[in-house]
């Protein structure tokens, strides 16, 4: 089950989010498939792992929460809030943020919102490597 969730997340990122961040076109069909995989992964995260606990494994934060919240935040790079309409997962993310410290959490994720800056930096590095 865990491997499936990781595979779906990586697949979504490689096929849709990364090209979108880099400014490439992503077909509607690919995006729809990736969003469906993502929806299923979020359902699994909520129903099988979070359930009625404060955090994924117990009522205390763990490495599992930190790793999962990083994945949940990635789609923000293309302005996709995957927790919209998911109050249980949104509350979980807020608890993780509070436990880690809001300032640290924001600093760790601020570059996600700057996908254009990332795109420019990667293009500049590509040009340097070709010269």
UniProtKB/TrEMBL annotation:
<dbReference type="InterPro" id="IPR036282">
    <property type="entry name" value="Glutathione-S-Trfase_C_sf"/>
</dbReference>
<feature type="domain" description="GST C-terminal">
    <location>
        <begin position="1"/>
        <end position="124"/>
    </location>
</feature>
<dbReference type="Pfam" id="PF00043">
    <property type="entry name" value="GST_C"/>
</dbReference>
<protein>
    <submittedName>
        <fullName>Glutathione S-transferase theta 1a</fullName>
    </submittedName>
</protein>
<dbReference type="InterPro" id="IPR004046">
    <property type="entry name" value="GST_C"/>
</dbReference>
<dbReference type="InterPro" id="IPR010987">
    <property type="entry name" value="Glutathione-S-Trfase_C-like"/>
</dbReference>
<dbReference type="GO" id="GO:0006749">
    <property type="term" value="P:glutathione metabolic process"/>
</dbReference>
<dbReference type="GO" id="GO:0004364">
    <property type="term" value="F:glutathione transferase activity"/>
</dbReference>
<dbReference type="GO" id="GO:0005737">
    <property type="term" value="C:cytoplasm"/>
</dbReference>
<dbReference type="InterPro" id="IPR051369">
    <property type="entry name" value="GST_Theta"/>
</dbReference>
